[in-house]
Write a structure and sequence with these properties.
single chain; mainly beta; 4-stranded antiparallel beta sheet; 33 strands; 4% helix; globular; disordered N terminus
Length: 411
């Protein structure tokens, strides 16, 4: 374990070395936040602390360069029916912002994406709905997928539309390691571990595939696509057909174990939860044979990084000649040493990550009072047409802007 801890320390050190400390008083038109960022970029606070945000989780752009507007999903709390859908409007000069309530009483909302039909899709604990957006018009939710499993520790629904226009949905495990709340680890079968949560008509610890019929936007079938996945809060779809999942691994007290994973999802594959982690490594007391037919990850990330969002970007954040044209961005939300940052991986032609990550942001701080600060906690983000990121920070109850000052104004 000392070797693993040393490797984690070395990785974090190498990431930090690619950054410069940014203590500017402003970032574009916004108040600057103290942060380590990739050279030439800065972090600014878009919304005030009293902006009616409680737990912003995801954000989608609906405005223009001249009038920046965003739909924001705010979970509210971990209690049911405290969530909201909000509209964030930013003035053309960036000096003012306003937050307006569009929907209330949502049940632990998290996922928010624009669908192939141009409508917007919203994920609550047990359902995915869609709605049309036109400024000034009332929003009516239309159910797309209902009665999804939401029991236990991981009720939030992230989802992504694949290049096939079908919908891939996270159904997280009810427990951490299938050892509490009535769940039971069962005997391994055919070289893969078993848990009572993964039995029955609606197994948990899985990513489901909703076969969609267009243009109606109706579900023809809903079936488990891949299993053995504890909590798939980061999902990304590549134009090649690749579906990637960022695994939030089990909650070991060890700072350096187990590593988080980026998994290339395949129909019918099992990725090891609850007994196998990292590169098909059995947990203590588990037979090696229990992991023999599980699928190894495409990439390992630092332990407890807690990836909560993942998407592709064509933005060149550096002038590095070795940078691939397209990259995979992730938010590492974890509260331990490996979290509290955003990173970018180079990707192959099929969208799978390769090499070491480039750290975009780390150690940003918000002022609590004259003596104390809180670290940033990134979740989802929207990327504008200049490559700037508008990031939801749920623990600090704000939206922040990650960009280059010369890209503002955007027009």
């Amino acid at each position: 374990m000392k070797i693993v801890l040393f490797a984690l320390t070395a990785l974090l050190a190498s990431l930090a070395s690619a950054q410069a400390q940014n203590n500017t008083k402003s970032c574009g038109p916004f108040p600057g936040l103290e942060a380590k960022t990739v050279d030439g970029w800065c972090l600014g606070q878009v919304t005030a602390k009293d902006a009616n945000l409680k737990m912003p989780r995801n954000i989608v752009a609906v405005g223009t360069a001249e009038t920046p507007e965003f739909l924001v999903v705010d979970m509210g709390s971990w209690e049911p029916r405290q969530g909201k859908l909000l509209l964030l409007s930013v003035s053309a000069n960036g000096k003012n912002s306003a937050v307006k309530e569009l929907l209330t009483n949502l049940d632990r909302p998290h996922g928010l994406r624009r669908g192939p039909d141009g409508m917007y899709y919203l994920g609550e604990a047990s359902r995915i709905s869609r709605f049309s957006w036109a400024a000034g018009n009332a929003i009516t939710l239309q159910s797309v997928v209902d009665k999804l499993p939401s029991e236990g520790r991981h009720p939030l629904k992230e989802f992504v539309f694949g290049s096939d226009k079908n919908l891939y949905i996270n159904v997280g495990a009810a427990t951490d390691r299938c050892t509490d709340g009535g769940s039971k680890v069962l005997a391994a079968q055919n070289g893969v571990p078993q848990c009572s949560e993964m039995r029955g008509a609606q197994p948990q610890a899985a990513v489901y595939k909703a076969l969609m019929r267009w243009p109606a936007g109706q579900v023809e079938s809903l079936t488990p696509f891949a299993t053995g996945l504890r909590n798939s809060m980061a999902l990304a779809a590549h134009s090649s057909g690749t579906i990637l999942q960022g695994e939030n691994n089990i909650d070991y007290p060890d700072e350096a174990f187990p590593a988080e994973e980026i998994n290339l999802l395949k129909q019918g594959a099992h990725y090891g939860w609850p007994s196998c982690v990292e590169n098909r490594k059995p947990l203590a007391g588990v037979a090696t044979s229990s992991c023999a037919q599980t699928t190894a990850p495409a990439m390992l990330m630092p332990a407890h990084a807690a990836p909560l969002h993942m998407q592709y970007s064509n933005t060149a954040f550096t002038k590095d000649a070795g940078q691939s044209k397209q990259g995979l961005l992730l938010s590492w939300h974890g509260h331990r040493a490996s979290g509290q940052r955003m990173v970018r991986y180079n990707v192959r032609a099929d969208g799978t990550p390769v090499g070491k990550p480039l750290e975009l942001i780390h150690q940003w701080k918000t002022r609590v009072n004259a003596q104390a600060t809180k670290p940033g906690s990134p979740v989802g983000w929207a990327e504008d047409d200049k490559g700037n990121l508008w990031i939801a920070d749920d623990r600090n109850r704000m939206i922040v802007w990650f960009g280059r000052a010369e890209t503002w104004p955007a027009r």
